[in-house]
Every structure is written in C-alpha cells, then in structure tokens.
Amino acid sequence: MHWPGTAIEHLSGFQPSFCPRRGCPEHVRPAPGFRFERHGFYSTRRRRRIPRFRCLACRRSFSRQSFAVSYYSKRPELLVPIAAGLVGGSAHRQIARTLGCAPSTVTRNAARLGRHAILLLATARREIEGRVDEPLVLDHFETFEFTQDYPFGVATLVGSQSWYVYDLDPAPHGRSGHITESQLRRVRARPPRRGHGGYVGSTRRVLQRVQDLTSRDGTIRIIGDGHAAYDQALRDPSLRRPLRLERYPNPPRGPKGSPRSEAARRRDERLFPVDLLHKILRHSLAHQRRETIAFGRRLNALMERFFLAALWRNFVKRRSERAARSGTPAMRLGLARERWPWSRVFSRRLFPARTPTPPTWARLYRRLWTSPLYPNNSRHELKLAF
Ligand SMILES: [Zn+2]
Predict the structure, then answer these.
(1) How far is the CA of 64 from the centre of ligand 1 (A)?
(2) 70: CA distance to ligand 1 center in Å?
C-alpha cells in the first residue's frame, strides 16, 4: 500500500494533485493533471510560509494545510500524543492534564482521529480486496453506551494467521442475564433504541463485506463460537459466495484453576486471535475497563475509538511485543514494509468523497449512529473540515 512517510507539513515542494473542496469537479480527480495556480503564502505562529494555491476549475483557494490531518488545528502537535494516550489506557481528562490542553480538545481530536482511522482502514481494505485467503475469526466484543441498560456488541473480524483486524460493526441489543424487578422498570422507562438488526444484522453486514475481501475461488472459512445469530446470518439469501462456519461453542468450565477439557482447549486455540484482540481492547482502552467511570457515552464515539485502536493494532503495534522482530499484522498482509510510527499514520489527510467506504463505516464517519438519550446528537457535517 502506498502511504507516504513524510508528514505533508514538512514537505517543501508540495504540489496538490486534486482540489480539496467538496463539490468541485476536480475534487474526485483520480489521475494526474490537476490545474492550479500558486496563490502566495500565509504564516502562523507555529509555521512560516505555508503555500497557498488556487483551483482553476472552481477558482477557490486553499493551502497545503488543507491536505494535512491537522487542518484547522491550533495545536497540531497534539495529534500524535492524543492518539498514543487513547490506546495507552488514558481517559480524556488524564490526557488533557498530561498535555496541558482542555479536555474538550482531547474529545474533539479523538473524533477526528477516529474519522481518519475509518478512512485509512477503508483505504487498506481496498488494497487487499480479493486477496485474503486466510480463515477469519469472528466474535462480538461486549460493551455498552452510557448505561448498562443500553448494551451493544461489536462484531470483530480478525485474520487467523495475520491477526489483522478486518472489520468492526456495532450490534445494539437488549439487556441480558439476571435482571431485578427495579432494573426492569428502569429499562422499560428508557427511550427505545434502534437495533439495526442486533447480532444477526451486524454479522450479516460483516459477512456481506467479507465476500469482496476474500479471493474469488473457494469457500470462505469463518471461525466462530456457537452463537445462534451467526447461523441465522449465514442463511441470508443475499450472500453470493459459499461460506463455511466452523463452530467452537464455549464448553462448561470448572472453577478457576481447574484443568481445561479437550473441547475447551480446542475452542481457545481456534479463537485465540480474536480473544487476544478483545483482551488488548479491554487492557488498552480506558473506556473498556471493567467498572470504570470513563465508560463511553455514545455508541458512535465509542466506535471511532475502536477504529483508532484497530488501526493501531494493524499498523503500529507489533503482533507480539515480546518478539521484537515480529512485525505488524499489516506487514503480514503485505500492506506495509515496516512498522509505522504514529507520525506516519497521520502523514496525509483522507477525504471521504475520495475514499470508497463500507456503508456502516460511512454512517459512523458522519456520526449518523445516534443515541436516544441525547436530545441533540451532534453530527459530523462541517462544510470544509469534513
Ligand atoms: Zn476546485
């Protein structure tokens, strides 16, 4: 995958290859040949002589900063430490105290980083379309938005050999497990939430997308636990290609410390890549720790942070940190030649109109996945900083 190592802010001879303005016919130009003229410079306290340009199609001007992930940002130096802090187990206020900025700056940047992660993972996805030939491990990661009365799972699809995180898709569902009379009354009093098909819906969406990912010939192998929703999703008539689900239901286990049965051992072995990912998410994201006060308030914002964590898992974090030379999951797939530092992840801004993105991901990008508890769910609908 072609992805530059040098941040665009440090590029001296930068030349735009398309117009950054949404709605301009030159915005989606795929080939070279974009016509522009130079339009002077501007300076800020942090950076001098940032070149400006003018698009000859729409006659509007823009600068080199329009192509940077730090567009419009007054504190561009915060992007990398905020990303590192979010996957390093810190909550927003803790990051803000360490970096000396307002907590709202961290929250806003977390959303921006999440959006960038969605588009960069979508770009990587295009690159490996039709080339994936490893079995894929599927499981739902359990969490909740705002209150445990609003639980949701996140379908996570991981490569059994590469450990690459291929897909994420939310599955809101009702409360399960033991519930007291007063809890039940409270749940019933809460505004209803759109389920988007729950487990079955999210599994179906993931399986539909899998078909473009895997190599054209042969059956797609999915490894999962015994969840009934997976079987139900598999019966969907819109699935064009043969899929084989290998089931490893969780067998009853004795008290802690007792030896595992043969079935339990086999299940743990086959689902290891996805179990490992879930452990990493629980360990590394402040909002996914048990009993935390940093719990996520809104599904859409939580998903943005899951996408950032997936990007980190795929391109930045080694498969195994004990084996220094183990490389990243993206290296296993041939998407990257080396481990990417965060600065490389943010070397270019991606534009949604230029990046083909799966529908669920595009909805999350625009923050259209709303939570019923809030009177106004802010959407992402800025005109220029989109
Ligand atoms: Zn233009």
Answers:
(1) 14
(2) 20
pLDDT (tens digit, 9 = 90+) per residue, 361-381?
999 999 999 988 888 888 998
What is the CB neighbour count within 10 angstroms for residue 380?
Answer: 18
d(CA 30, CA 383): 22
Residue 299: both structure tokens together? 């599904």
Distance 237 CA to ligand 1 centre (A): 43
**Ligand 1 centroid distance, CA of 18 (Å):** 8
Spatial contact of 171 and 202, defined as CB atoms under 8 Å apart: yes
Cα(367) to centroid of ligand 1, in Å? 26
Q: How far is the CA of 79 from the centre of ligand 1 (A)?
A: 28
Residue 50 CA to ligand 1 center (angstroms) comes to 19
Model pLDDT for residues 51-81, shown as the tens digit of each residue:
999 999 999 999 999 999 999 999 999 999 9
Question: What is the Cα–Cα distance from 159 to 329, expressed in whole angstroms?
Answer: 9
* Residue 287 near residue 296 (C-beta atoms within 8 A): yes
Give the H/E segment covering residue 248: none
d(CA 340, ligand 1 centre) in Å: 32
Share of the chain above pLDDT 90, in %: 86
Does the predicted TM-score (pTM) go above 0.85?
Answer: yes
**Each residue's pLDDT tens digit, 195-236:** 999 999 999 999 999 999 988 778 899 999 999 999 999 999
Burial group, residue 25, by CB count within 10 angstroms (0-12, 13-18, 19+): exposed
